Amino acid sequence: MRSMVPDPLHLLKREHEVMLDHLRMIETTIAPRTTRSRVTAEPDRRTLCELFRFFTDRVSIHFSREAVLMVALSRSFGQEQTARKRFEGLRREHRELRADAAGIMKALNGKSSGASGVAGTDPFRIRSFIQRYRTHLAYEERILFVLAELRLTVEQRLRISHRMLQM
Fold first, then answer.
1. C-alpha separations of 72 from 107, 112, 157 in Å
2. Distance CA 134, CA 128 (A)
3. What angle (nearest 5°) sits at the alpha carbon of residue 35, between those of residues 32 and 106?
4. What radius of gyration, in Å, describes the C-alpha atoms of the chain?
5. CA 154 – CA 8 distance, rounded (Å)
6. What stretches of the chain show up as alpha helix (H) in DSSP?
7. What does the pLDDT read at residue 112?
8. Is the pLDDT score of 2 beyond 80?
9. 66-88, pLDDT tens digit by residue?
10. Is pTM beyond 0.70 here?
11. Helix 59-77 vs helix 81-108: angle between axes, to the nearest 10 degrees?
């Protein structure tokens, strides 16, 4: 009989798809638009704030789920330091990405030095955030998820899924 608990990698990949959707929505929101009078319209600050809130709040559950996977993988590698360093690097990137999203939100809310609304937010910073996030997600799918498929048993993955779903 097949378990109704989803595979942890499937769950994490679905969450990555949601993140990529949010990144595309940010791109659409910051894309230059012109009005009928040919004046470039400023992106909607509230929409951007809401989209970035996703990357400061909701992703924390996803990062916690990935941490469960990384702990299990670390155990499978035993004393091998290379893998442990790689996992610590991913956790550090999680913290940096959340901090960057929070910084952008702060600028959007006009709480940065001299910033006002969207005009106070550097579009390059937003594009850089999008690119860094995409690179991070792609790396996780290429390395972290493949390692999990290769090194974790079905039973281990089932236990990981149970832990992830409790978050």
1. 38, 40, 9
2. 10
3. 45
4. 19
5. 10
6. 8-30, 45-53, 59-77, 81-108, 123-139, 145-151, 154-165
7. 46
8. no
9. 999 999 999 888 877 888 888 99
10. yes
11. 170
